[in-house]
Structures are given as structure tokens and as C-alpha cells.
Amino acid sequence: MNRFIEHLEKLNAKETKVRAVLRRSLAFDPGTYVDAYPYVEPFVKNEDKSWRRETFYLVAGLWASHWRVGRSGVPMTFGKACAVYQVVSGSTSTERRFIALLDADVDQLPHRLRQMVALLKEQSIDFGDLLNGLRYWGDDRKRIQNAWAREFYQNI
Which CATH number fits the domain that encloses residue 105? Predict the structure, then answer.
């Protein structure tokens, strides 16, 4: 598990309001909800690039919105979790949503990810892997988008 996600899990074990605050942060642009600072900022204090900092706040909020007591199963990469959702649900719109997510720029990405994570409520997501991927979202070669697409299409 990623150190940041472990950090959130430890905070959550000590203080139940952590998830509520981080869930609430999703209503704001990543990194702008002041109440979330005590939970995320100590971990990202040395991160000086704007997008990379924002990814920590975004993933913290997504983690909190997705967290469930007793969730079982091995955490899956995001592309695989989307594929599993499509297979299990039989939804015809999942692929369109997934493609829109892959095509999203950094301004659209938080909204599209919130929508997709809400659909994946039964899947166990590897949020550490998600954080690592999002940090490179703006790569000109779209490496993370291509990796997610491969995972998706190999699993449907």
C-alpha cells in the first residue's frame, strides 16, 4: 500500500471525522478546502508542483468517498476496476464514461473521477496506484491513460 494511503488509514483509525472532512473536500477544487489541510498537508509539505499537490487532495477525497467498513478483495488498478464494474453491472454507458475520463484534461479530471469512483462502490480500488498514475496525467504520451485503457480492454 502507498505511504499516503497508509497515512490516511491511520488518521481514520484515530479520528472518525477524517473521512467526512475529506469527502466534503470533493465539493471544492483539489487543495482549496481548508478543513482538509491538517490531514493532507503534513504529508505533501515538500511537494511544490501545483498539479502534483492537487492529486494528493483529490485522491484523499476519493479514498474517503469510497471507503467502506469490511471491504474485501484485493485492490485493483483503476482500469481493471472499471472493467470489472462493466462486466458485473452490464452497463452499456461504462465504456463511454471511461473514455471520457481518459480524454479529460486536468480541469475536468476531478469531476470525471468523482463520477466514476461513485460507480465503483463495490470494487476495491488501489488508491496508491491511482495517486501514482494521476501525478503523471499531463504526460504528452498519455502513458497512464494508455495503461488504464489496456487494463480495461484486457478485462472486459
Answer: 1.10.520.40
